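During the practical work, I selected for study one protein's amino acid sequence and its backbone structure tokens, as given directly below:
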Amino acid sequence: MVQNPLSNWKPHLALGITGHRPDNPAFAANAQAVEAALLDIFETIEGIRSEIALDHPGEIRLHSLMAEGIDQVAANFALEKGWQIVAPLPFGKDLNLAINAAPATPDDLTALCDGQEARDPAVRDRAAEIRRLLAHADVFQIADRDAEIRDLLLRKMAGPDDESVGHRLQALTSDNVALAGRIMIERSDLLIAVWDCKRTDLAGGTGHTVVSALQNGTPVLVVDLADPVGWTILSRSEELGHLARGEKGEAETTRLRALVETTLAPISPAVQAMSREKWRRRSPFGFGIYRHIETVFGGRTTKSGTIQAVYESPDKIAEGSARQLLETARSVLDEEGRVYTSLRDELLPAFAWADGVSSRLSDAYRSGMTVSFALSAFAIIAGIAYLPLDLAEYKWIFASIEFGLLLSILLITYAGYRFAWHRRWFETRRVAEYLRFGPAIAIMGVARPIGRWPRGDGDDWPERFARDALRDAGLPDVKVDRAYMRKVLQGVVLPHVKGQRRYHEAKSAQLARVHHRIDRSAETCFLTALVTVAIYLGIEAGAALSLLPSEWPRSIAKVFTFMGVAFPTLGANLAGIRYFGDFERFSAISLATASKLSSVEARIELLLSGDQAQMSYRATSELVQSVDEIIVAEIEGWQSVFGAKHLTLPA
């Protein structure tokens, strides 16, 4: 039996830490109080977690850039509590070590960059502490600019008065630190900032990180260096002008508790119900009717034309449609590492499960509504079919058929409500679409910040599950250089973008045909009815003027009455199917999505074919984020179309 991924949901609390280095005057003057306040916050969070009753206690994960000062203090506290540590480093391990150990001589700088020991005992001690912490962490290294930054560091040390070198070095290092900070913000439920509450304009600095987090919707717990006890939680950047000092208020503790409880205990009744949802290899026979409507009026596609759809098994996706993707992932990731095994064993199977369940529920919901429209037309036609057959004495038979068809409509509508086809389809489809691009997101180390996830009026468990599933894989423990980025772009991102672009182009064209052909068919029915009535009136007029036999109108009245009712009924119900299916708007959504994907595809190909020195982590990760934005926009688009179209009687 295929396992339901919701039964193994792994909620966790992700924290980020940012703060000043020891050379900050406010930190140096109040270091013990600051560390005590930070430890108290960690213990408060740990205490809240221990109070939450969970079948699978959620883990706490700390993201730290491992700079000297607050970053390392927090990492040590986290280690003591058994929390997982993730280190998104702005540079490769060795260069990061060389920068943060603060060597004073070119020889020590070179030695650290080459993975060797420094001569200066103080530098050696600082380097040893960083190595110790990184040995307990998953380390994501942004190393694409290491060679240039190392050269600038040596040149700066040799010529400290060279302003051009200093400015270039400052720009590159600040940009990389800001990038690492962005990765931390994207993956955090709460950013803890130990800050002097002054500057916010230094890229990569504590204040800049605080502002970036708030702008992305990530709440920030600010510990003021001048008054570390009186911490506060901010949720909007405009609140920076209202930072208040004083005793820690009960309201702030309540807010922290609510945040931790909400993150670690996201199980709702809807999730408990969906955790019993079963994946089925095939859809029931009658669920394929809607896809046949698309085929009849729009032509065959990969997802239409069969009565029974067959879904890819979550247990087989690794050897099936995801085989090439996993081969690329294996070439850049540790095959035994957390990210690769999570992709193979959890993320891809979860996508296949959600995609299969959603497709089946979508077919049930849309086929149910389509059948209801068809049955309503047939019920009316069957109810008056005795007229042209001149079987008035057997009208009860036709009435019985009409009654049975109308009862079938009621049963279909009841089944739709009873089994929540619409809601379950929407929720599982959102999960599937969020996870579809998940492998590229995980391998490239990007994520959607907590404040940028869509929010609807209903239960938001699909967004939270997808977020936790993507986060659970964590950051790859890799060194991201240009060769790494090139492989990921060529083997993971570009194939996905091309495949989705082609799918949406074909889907848009098919749905446009469906819309126009159903429209023409409905118009034809109404025109036929008009012609039928006109012919009958002509016969009546001819008989009245003695141009035609007088008995003709009476002998054909029943046949023409039947046609005068049947054709408008068919036309109206075809128009109802067209309205319900909203093929035109779905076509427009797919066309817009294809256009956006085509633009990103062109950008990726330009980056791959151009000067490789221009292939930076910033450019590559932003392309991945662009694809993610397109996916979310497409989800929001189809939700706006079908969100209010529940299964109803075809009145």
About this structure: Residues 16-264 form a domain with the Rossmann fold fold (CATH 3.40.50.450). The mean pLDDT is 89.
